[in-house]
Amino acid sequence: MKKTLALALAVVMSLGLMAGCGPKEPANPSPQPGGSTTPPSSASQSKGGDASSIPEAPAGGGTIGVCIYKFDDAFMTTYRNALQEILEGKGYKVTVVDGNNDQAKQNEQINTFITQGVDALIINPCMTSAADQIIKTVKEANVPTVLINREPTADQMSAYDKLVYVGCDAAQSGTFQGELILETANKGDINGDGKVSYIMIQGDPENIDAKLRTEYSVKALTDAGIQVEELDLQRGDWDRNRGQEIAQNDLAKFGDQIEVVFCNNDDMAIGALQAIQAAGRKVNEDIYLVGVDALDAALNEVMNGNMTGTVLNDAVGQATEAVNQMELLLSGTTYGAGEQSVYVPYVKVTPDNAKDFVG
Ligand code: BGC
Question: I need a surface site. Which of 20, 64, 113, 179 has the fewest CB within 10 A?
Answer without folding.
Answer: 20
